[in-house]
C-alpha cells in the first residue's frame, strides 16, 4: 500500500509507476483532436474510425477559446453560450434520432460533433476582436462561417447516421442553431 | 438452509455485459442490477416508447418530399384532381417517403421554430426586441394551435367523418406555420406595405390546401351504410375550416 519508506518520501514510488499517464486516463487524445481539426479546416473527408471515438475534450477546448475571444471583444456571454448550446444540442439530438430510420446516435456523440463543427465560428470570433460585422464584408464573413460550420456538422452526421436523401433536412436545423449562436455572440 | 434459487439472469455472463474502458459497469452481484434490468424491460412496452415509435413514422421524410409538400402548400392550385393517398394496412396514411400527400411532422416543427425566430427578428428590426418576445410568440402560437385542434377535431367527430389520429391532425394544422413564415419573410424583406396582399395570397392558398386534404376525412361516413349524395353540412364544414385558417394566420401574424 502507500507506505512511507522514509520520512522524506511522501509515497512509495513503485505504486505510482503503475498508473497510466494522465492524458490517457482522462481520455484526452491530442493526436485525434489535431487530426479532426485539420480535417475540418482543410475540408478533408474524416475517417470513420475517428468519428467512432467521440471525445469532449476538443469541443471543450473550442468553447473555452470561443468564450475567451468574446471576452477579448468585450462581451461576457458564457452562461448564454452554455445554456443555448445545451438546449440546441438536445433539440438536434431529438430531431436526428427521429429522422434516422436505421441507426441511432447518442447525446454525447451529438454534442461532440456539434462542438467540433463550431471551429469556423471560433475563427469568426477571432476576427471579431478586430473588426465590426455591420458592413457588407462582415455580413459575408458571418454567412460564410455559418455555412462552413453547417456543412461540416452535416457531413459528420451523414457519415454516422447513413442519411442519404435527408442531407438538406438535417442541415436546416443545424444551420439555424449556428446562425442563432453567431447572432448571440456577434451582436 | 435456504434453497438455492437460479438467478433470473442465468443466461447472462459477466463477460457479455458492456464495460466502460475495461471497468465493469453492470455487476451481476449487485441486487440493484435486477431493479435496473427490470426497469429497462418495463420501458420497452411503456407508453413513451410507443409514442416515440409512432412519432418516428412522421419524420421519415426525404428532400424531394419536402420540396413537393412546400409546393403543395404555397401553390396548391397547380395540383388538380383528387389527392389520392395510399394507405397502410391499418388504415393510417403511409410513410411520407412513398406518398406525396401523407402528413409529416418535420415541416410543421421546423416552420414553427423558424416562425418564432423570424418574429424575434422582425421585432428586433422595429427596435423592441427582448428575449421574452420569443417565449410569448411560442406560447401564444401553441395556444392558438390547440384551440384550432379542438374545433377541427370536434367538428370532424360530430359530423361523423373518418377520424384522423391526433398526430395527423397536429401535422395538418401545423402546416399553417409555413404560410406564416412566408408572410413574415416577405414583410421583412419587402417592407410593411406588402403585408396585406401577401397575407391574402398565402392564407387563401393554405385554406385551399387544407380543405382539399380534409376531403379525405369528410368523404367517408363512419356508419356502415353507403351514403349516395354529397352531404352539404360536410362541404360547408370544409369551408369553415378554410376560413378558420385565414383567421388564425391573421392572428398569428398580428403580434
Automatic annotation (TrEMBL), chain A:
<feature type="domain" description="Yip1">
    <location>
        <begin position="48"/>
        <end position="184"/>
    </location>
</feature>
<feature type="transmembrane region" description="Helical">
    <location>
        <begin position="80"/>
        <end position="99"/>
    </location>
</feature>
<feature type="transmembrane region" description="Helical">
    <location>
        <begin position="111"/>
        <end position="131"/>
    </location>
</feature>
<keyword id="KW-1133">Transmembrane helix</keyword>
<feature type="transmembrane region" description="Helical">
    <location>
        <begin position="137"/>
        <end position="157"/>
    </location>
</feature>
<dbReference type="GO" id="GO:0000139">
    <property type="term" value="C:Golgi membrane"/>
</dbReference>
<comment type="similarity">
    <text>Belongs to the YIP1 family.</text>
</comment>
<dbReference type="Pfam" id="PF04893">
    <property type="entry name" value="Yip1"/>
</dbReference>
<keyword id="KW-0472">Membrane</keyword>
<feature type="transmembrane region" description="Helical">
    <location>
        <begin position="169"/>
        <end position="186"/>
    </location>
</feature>
<feature type="transmembrane region" description="Helical">
    <location>
        <begin position="56"/>
        <end position="74"/>
    </location>
</feature>
<dbReference type="GO" id="GO:0005802">
    <property type="term" value="C:trans-Golgi network"/>
</dbReference>
<protein>
    <recommendedName>
        <fullName>Protein YIPF</fullName>
    </recommendedName>
</protein>
<keyword id="KW-0812">Transmembrane</keyword>
<dbReference type="GO" id="GO:0048280">
    <property type="term" value="P:vesicle fusion with Golgi apparatus"/>
</dbReference>
<dbReference type="InterPro" id="IPR006977">
    <property type="entry name" value="Yip1_dom"/>
</dbReference>
<dbReference type="GO" id="GO:0006888">
    <property type="term" value="P:endoplasmic reticulum to Golgi vesicle-mediated transport"/>
</dbReference>
<dbReference type="InterPro" id="IPR045231">
    <property type="entry name" value="Yip1/4-like"/>
</dbReference>
UniProtKB/TrEMBL annotation, chain B:
<keyword id="KW-0653">Protein transport</keyword>
<feature type="transmembrane region" description="Helical">
    <location>
        <begin position="236"/>
        <end position="254"/>
    </location>
</feature>
<comment type="similarity">
    <text>Belongs to the YIF1 family.</text>
</comment>
<dbReference type="GO" id="GO:0030134">
    <property type="term" value="C:COPII-coated ER to Golgi transport vesicle"/>
</dbReference>
<feature type="transmembrane region" description="Helical">
    <location>
        <begin position="169"/>
        <end position="190"/>
    </location>
</feature>
<dbReference type="Pfam" id="PF03878">
    <property type="entry name" value="YIF1"/>
</dbReference>
<feature type="transmembrane region" description="Helical">
    <location>
        <begin position="133"/>
        <end position="157"/>
    </location>
</feature>
<dbReference type="InterPro" id="IPR005578">
    <property type="entry name" value="Yif1_fam"/>
</dbReference>
<dbReference type="GO" id="GO:0006888">
    <property type="term" value="P:endoplasmic reticulum to Golgi vesicle-mediated transport"/>
</dbReference>
<keyword id="KW-0813">Transport</keyword>
<feature type="transmembrane region" description="Helical">
    <location>
        <begin position="196"/>
        <end position="215"/>
    </location>
</feature>
<keyword id="KW-0812">Transmembrane</keyword>
<protein>
    <recommendedName>
        <fullName>Protein YIF1</fullName>
    </recommendedName>
</protein>
<dbReference type="GO" id="GO:0005793">
    <property type="term" value="C:endoplasmic reticulum-Golgi intermediate compartment"/>
</dbReference>
<keyword id="KW-0472">Membrane</keyword>
<dbReference type="GO" id="GO:0005789">
    <property type="term" value="C:endoplasmic reticulum membrane"/>
</dbReference>
<comment type="function">
    <text>Has a role in transport between endoplasmic reticulum and Golgi.</text>
</comment>
<keyword id="KW-0256">Endoplasmic reticulum</keyword>
<keyword id="KW-0333">Golgi apparatus</keyword>
<keyword id="KW-1133">Transmembrane helix</keyword>
<feature type="transmembrane region" description="Helical">
    <location>
        <begin position="105"/>
        <end position="121"/>
    </location>
</feature>
<dbReference type="GO" id="GO:0000139">
    <property type="term" value="C:Golgi membrane"/>
</dbReference>
